[in-house]
Design a protein that fits this description.
Elements (H helix, E strand, L loop, with lengths): L3 H8 L7 E3 L6 E3 L6 H4 L4 H7 L20 E2 L5 E2 L15
Antiparallel strand pairs: 1-2, 3-4
Helix pairs in contact: 1-3
Length: 95
């Protein structure tokens, strides 16, 4: 475990950030206080993914929804739907 993402989050002065949690063989990098990853690294998420040597933190690319495969994502995370679906998605939210 390299802890690179922990250091990146710390340097970005994230409010919650990342930390090494657990003990012994159960140690892992995680969000303190069982927080959500999306709230832990709001500023440093991109940089954390870039420095992660294992891919444990990676970018979502070309992933539309958890339930359907008809829509795609733009570079800024917006969903686009094919004309044949009438502009509606039956999949779940990306939030």
């Amino acid at each position: 475990m390299c802890e690179a993402c922990v250091h990146v989050a710390e340097n970005a002065q994230e409010e919650l950030g990342l930390a090494v949690v657990g003990r012994g063989f159960q140690v892992a990098v995680g969000v303190p206080f069982n927080g959500e990853l999306s709230k832990a690294i709001r500023v440093a998420a991109r940089r954390c993914a870039e420095v992660c040597p294992t891919g444990a933190l990676a970018f979502r690319t070309q992933r539309a929804c958890d339930l359907c495969e008809s829509c795609t994502l733009t570079a800024n995370g917006q969903r686009t739907l094919p004309e044949s679906d009438g502009g509606e998605c039956n999949g779940s939210s990306l939030e």
